[in-house]
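Board notes (copied after class):
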Amino acid sequence: MASEPLISVCELSKQFRTYRRREGLWGGIQNLFHREHQYVTAVDRVSFSIQRGEMVGYIGPNGAGKSTTIKMLTGILVPSSGEIVVNNFVPWRQRTAYVKTIGVVFGQRTQLWWDIAVIESFKLLRRIYDVSQRDFDERMETFNQILGIRDYLHTPVRKLSLGERMRCDLAAALLHNPPLLFLDEPTIGLDVVAKDHIRHFLRAINRQFQTTVLLTTHDLDDIEELCRRLLIIDRGRVLYDGPLALLKQKLLRIKQIKFAVRDSEQAVRLASLSREGLELDRVDELTFRIRFDRVKFSTADLIRQILASAEVRDLLIEDEPIEEIIKRIYAGGALLEVSA
């Protein structure tokens, strides 16, 4: 028997009422006395559910409806229609009690007090969330072991680097051990090392505490490192909801073979590989790349043909980057091949 989902969203919609601004001085005067209103649909009948312990990526282009969905899930916005139940709460109706059961991290904002030491912010949050001193000490030790925050606990937040502040924001969001964590661009602007620390921490808290994570990001490396399931939204509607592995399996049709030949004389012999459906590109004087549709061409056969045509000193088989798959999905039509 399937367990009850932690997040249940049914036919969720959100419309915003706006008005058209007329241009020029006369248009400005007209706007004072007569406004032409219009409605913009940001989220359009979205439905999905998330089980406890899942880490789900929620992605889409700018303006797709991601942030609006997250704001409704966290209780900041009231839906125009539809239903949301999160951990047995209706977020916007029971907001005071509900926010004590969630953690939220927005990459461009901080919940820490700007001019006081980090540890003082943590102590204030401990009182706000009514965390016992024993639990507080245990969690601070856990956060330090994984995130290494001890060195700047006594530093004002405004003096922290972006990576240091993000680690502290994550610790603050999880200080009360919520079952659910909302992350909006948690690694934006971070360097490779800082991103690795954040991803390692998220995997650890998910494994240790079964914390459910809903992640919105434009960094698809975050998705590949953390999430097995992907929700793709565009123009307010869910385009795909299913395993990341299935999406890659169905849409990862383009492969490429990158190889280097021994000398320029060998390079001339590669002309025999040119044919319809194969893209042969020259990377540099001795390095080439063949792009092909793996449904139409066998990778093994192509490798044999390359080796038969020239003396190869290095060869690498690469899949199409996930960024290219997502671009094709946004362009339309790509998901017709996927039956999740």
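Comment from the instructor: The first strand starts at residue 7 and ends at 20. The domain at 7-248 is CATH 3.40.50.300 (Rossmann fold).
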